[in-house]
Write a structure and sequence with these properties.
Layout lengths: L1 H32 L13 H9 L1 E5 L7 H8 L5 E8 L6 E9 L3 H7 L5 E2 L2 E2 L1 E4 L14 H17 L5 H13 L3
Antiparallel strand pairs: 1-3, 1-6, 2-3, 4-5
């Protein structure tokens, strides 16, 4: 008798968890649009509209991972009226990528914000640049991603593990040249 009651309770809890999951995915979808329904979301903007928005936006690099949109807004509020602050996160694990975009109401605010380049935000020197429009089909960095990832990987390894890349690549390159018969 008691076992049946426990099973029924477990079933209820599983159903509840499923409902919560669906709710969470709905919230995530809305959050990903970045704007409430009715306002043009970045997904269905034309290239011209995107360029217009990007002309009023700045890229902020080297942002502290713990920073919030509110703190960034406070840091830049003297530059002009702010429409939106977007902190970019890794879509796989949700961790911040360390950079953000700030969209101003006026185009002139971008020039004012450029003066904030190399200013200290949460104890880190931030990089401020005008935001570039990503054209469809263009690489975001105009560099092959493999080269970027490889360089980044080696850089991280050297600072994290104390790995000295001087010794190994030289030997590796030397060996590879011996094996090439042509």
């Amino acid at each position: 008798m008691e076992l049946e009651a426990i099973k029924a309770r477990v079933r209820e809890m599983e159903e509840e968890a499923e409902k919560l999951k669906q709710l969470q995915s709905e919230v995530d979808k809305q959050m990903n649009l970045g704007s409430p329904p009715g306002i043009t979301s970045p997904l269905n903007m034309s290239t011209e509209e995107k360029m217009e928005v990007d002309n009023r936006s700045i890229y902020v690099g080297n942002v502290d991972y713990g920073a919030t949109a509110e703190e960034l807004e406070q840091h830049f509020h003297g530059c002009g009226s702010i429409n939106r602050v977007t902190i970019l996160c890794n879509k796989f694990d949700g961790h911040p990528k360390g950079f953000a975009y700030i969209e101003f109401t006026e185009k002139d605010s971008v020039q004012t914000a450029m003066a904030m380049d190399e200013s200290l935000f949460r104890g880190r020197q931030i990089k401020v640049m005008p935001k570039r429009t990503n054209r469809p089909g263009m690489s975001m960095t105009n560099r092959p991603p493999r080269g970027r990832g490889y360089r980044g990987g080696r850089g991280r390894a050297s600072s994290y593990y104390g790995y000295r890349p001087m010794r190994r690549p030289r030997g590796y390159r030397g060996r590879s040249s011996y094996y090439m018969p042509y």
